[in-house]
C-alpha cells in the first residue's frame, strides 16, 4: 500500500513537468477540434497523431494520446448543441436536449453544462482507474501460457461481437485480423510466413501503419466519395456558460449516476461511449423531478449524456492496461501506442521502472480533465466556428497527415504503401459493415494467442488438456462464451435506449450513416 501511494505521489510530480503539461494542453485542444468536426472520430484522431509521439518519452506520448481521447469525446457535444449534428457518436443523445436549449437562446448554458459534466464524469472515472487497475494487474500476474491464450480469445470475441451489428461479421473481422497477424517470421521456429520477399515484413505488419490506414485514411476515402455538404452555421451565443449554484446542485445527482453507468460500460470491453450516452440520458430522465422539460431543453439531459460518455474514458483504460483487452476502438489504438513504445499491456506495466511511467500517465489523465474544463469553457466560441470546416479542406488535410505520419515512422516508403493498403481495406470494411477495431485487435492479440497456444502444447507434449487445467482457464472460457453472446444483450440495450430517447437521433439517420461512425 505504501509503495502504491509513493508511486501515485511520484506520478503527479512527474506529470507536472512542463513538457507533460504542454502535451496535455496541445492534446486536449487537438482532441476538441477533432471531436467537434462531424465526420471525424476520437479513434481516427488518436491514430492520425500517433506518429507524433514516437520521439516523446513514453509517459508524455501516452498523456498526449489520452488528452486527444478525452478532448474528442467532449468536443462532439459542441457541434451537437450548436448545429444539431453530433461530432462523435458519443454525443448523439446530447443533441436532443442541447439543440433545444440553443433554440431557446441558451446555447452558452448548454455548452457550460456539457463541459462541467464532462469534467466531473472524466475526473470521477479516474478513481476506478487508480483503484481497480492495480488489483486486476495482480490477478494477471498469475497467468501462464494457457491463460494468455484464452485471454486473447476473450478479447477477440468481445470486440468482434459487440462492436458490429452482426455477430457473424464481427467474427469475420477478427478472423481477417488473425490472418494478417501471421505475416512475418514464425515466433517459435523463425520460419518466413507470407512475406512475399519483403524484408520489411520481417517483424510483421507495422501496427501504426495499419491503425492510420484503417481509422484515418479509410475515413478520408469515405468522405471523399460523398457530395461535399454545406455545414450548418453554428449558432452565435451571448449567454453565460457558467452554471449557478442552484443548477450545479440540480445536475449533481445526475452526474453521479452517469459516472457509475459510464464507468461500468467502459470497463466492459466492447460497449463504448455511444451506448453510455443514451443510458446516462435515459437514467437522467427517469430520476428527474422535471420530466416535462425533457425533449424541450433540459440541462439534466445534457449532463446525463456528457457525464456518462466521459466516464467511459477512465473505465475503458482498465482492461486495456491490465489485460490487454481494449474497451473500445480508441483504446485499441492506444494499445498500439503502448506497443510501439516497447511496452506490453498487462501486469508488467505495474511493476519495476515501468510502474513509474504508468502512474505518471494516471496522474496526467487526472490533470487532463482540468485542462479539458479550462480549454472547453474558454474556447467554446472559437471551436464552434471550427465545426463548420468544410470536407473540401478536411479530406486533403487528413490524407496528407496519413502519408507524412506513415513515412515518418521509419522513413520508409513501404510503410506508406502498407498504410494505403489498409486504408482501402478499412474503406471496404466500412462498406460491408465489418469491424475495423476487431481487425486491429486481432493484429495485436493474434501473436500473443499464438505464442500462448504453442508454448502450452510444447509444455504438455502436445496434449490440449493443459488449456483446461486451471480454474482461471475455465473462468476465461466462460467469459469467451459471454463475449460471443453479449451482442444480443448489447443490441437490445442500445435499441431500447434510442427508442426511449426519442427515436431518430441527429447524425444517426440513414441519410448519412458514416459521418459519425467509430
Q: Would you write up a description of this structure?
A:
The protein has 518 residues and is mostly helical. Helix content is 70%, strand content 1%. It has 18 helices and two strands. It has helices at residues 2-15, 18-35, 42-48, 58-82, 94-103, 107-140, 145-162, 167-181, 207-224, 245-267, 273-287, 299-323, 329-340, 352-386, 391-410, 413-431, 436-459, 471-501, and strands at residues 184-185, 192-193. α4 packs antiparallel against α13 (329-340). The chain is globular, with a radius of gyration of 22 Å. Mean pLDDT is 80; it is low at 507-518.
Brief summary of the model shown:
The protein is mostly helical and 518 residues long. The chain has helices at 2-15, 18-35, 42-48, 58-82, 94-103, 107-140, 145-162, 167-181, 207-224, 245-267, 273-287, 299-323, 329-340, 352-386, 391-410, 413-431, 436-459, 471-501, and strands at 184-185, 192-193.
Low-confidence stretches: 507-518
Large-scale geometry: globular
User: How much strand content do the residues show?
Assistant: under 5%
Supply the helix-strand structural class: mainly alpha
Order of strands in the sheet with most strands: 1-2
- Specify the biggest β-sheet: 2 strands, antiparallel
Number of DSSP E strands: 2
| Mean pLDDT score | 80
> What is the string of helix and strand elements?
HHHHHHHHEEHHHHHHHHHH
Query: Cα-atom Rg, whole angstroms?
Result: 22 Å
Number of helices: 18
* Cα-to-Cα separation, first versus last residue: 39 Å
How much helix is in the residues? over 70%
Please render the helix and strand layout as text:
Elements: H1 2-15, H2 18-35, H3 42-48, H4 58-82, H5 94-103, H6 107-140, H7 145-162, H8 167-181, E1 184-185, E2 192-193, H9 207-224, H10 245-267, H11 273-287, H12 299-323, H13 329-340, H14 352-386, H15 391-410, H16 413-431, H17 436-459, H18 471-501
Antiparallel strand pairs: 1-2
